[in-house]
Amino acid sequence: MTIFSGTADWERYLEGLVKDRLRGRASPVDIARRLYREMKESRRVSVLRVYVPAVFAVGLHPADLAALGECVPHLGRELADYLQEKARQHGYTMVAPPQVGFYPDEGLSPGAVRVEATFREGGVREEAAGGDNTRCFERVAAPAPAPVRARLLVLAGPDRERTVQLNGKDLVIGRHAGCDFVLTDPSVSRRHARIGDHGGEYVLTDLHSTNGVYANGVRTMQKVLGDGDTITLGNTVILFRSS
Predict the structure, then answer these.
(1) Which domains does the chain carry?
(2) What is the DSSP string of 118-179?
(3) In whole angstroms, what is the distance from residue 27 CA to residue 19 CA?
(4) CA 136, CA 158: separation in Å to the nearest integer?
């Protein structure tokens, strides 16, 4: 994690990542403040702890996202570190390491930011505490990790919070029941995209879909995926994580 003496130092560092690219557009500091606000507004209070979300999807105008370019994965990691430090400062509990992904949102104006925050799959479970009106939230034990090298997490769309693990075999994504990862989003093609393991690298390929495949907001026919990359298929945004 990057260490700074104060918030101002961190903000200057973050702006330096994409200096001169975002004049008149959403800046990293704007995004960070919006993420922090969403994290606070989504907190859940238990008897002993205050839980906050760990998974965040950031929507930007397509031109704003394109301006970030190759900085998107690095910026996502820096923002995740920022949220983790803010949670620590305020005594909040995250049920998993924070993740921040980006997706293009044509419904937004340039400079605008939309943030969706969720607790990771399973998240926290609400239980009644005795006969009063007190509400408790407890950790839900995460399933034992499978011996896989990568996974996908749906950040936004009808199938939000679904996950799938990649085990070295080709994975076809689409609406068709025969796909390996079936999505219900009507804007996704029947066979929309494929992710294959090529010599230890996961490669995303557009299977001649109707609405195209976007990686970190940029349309692509084929791309080698890196940890933290976001994949947009129709109205569905997927985060790629690799170990």
Answers:
(1) 24-118 (3.30.2320.60), 150-242 (2.60.200.20)
(2) EPPTT-EEEEE-TTSS-EEEEEPPPPPPPS-SEEEEEEESTTTT-EEEE-SS-EEEESSTTS
(3) 9
(4) 28
Residue whose pair of structure tokens reads 């044509």 in the numeric block: 106
Whose CA is closest to 56, among 100, 121, 102, 6? 100
pLDDT in 10s for each residue of the chain, 243 residues: 444 445 555 555 445 444 444 455 778 888 899 999 999 988 898 888 899 988 888 888 888 888 887 788 888 889 999 999 999 999 999 988 888 888 888 788 888 888 888 876 444 444 444 444 444 444 444 454 444 468 999 988 899 888 998 887 899 999 999 999 999 999 999 999 999 988 778 999 999 999 999 988 888 999 999 888 889 999 899 999 886
At 90, list the tokens. Answer: 């305020």
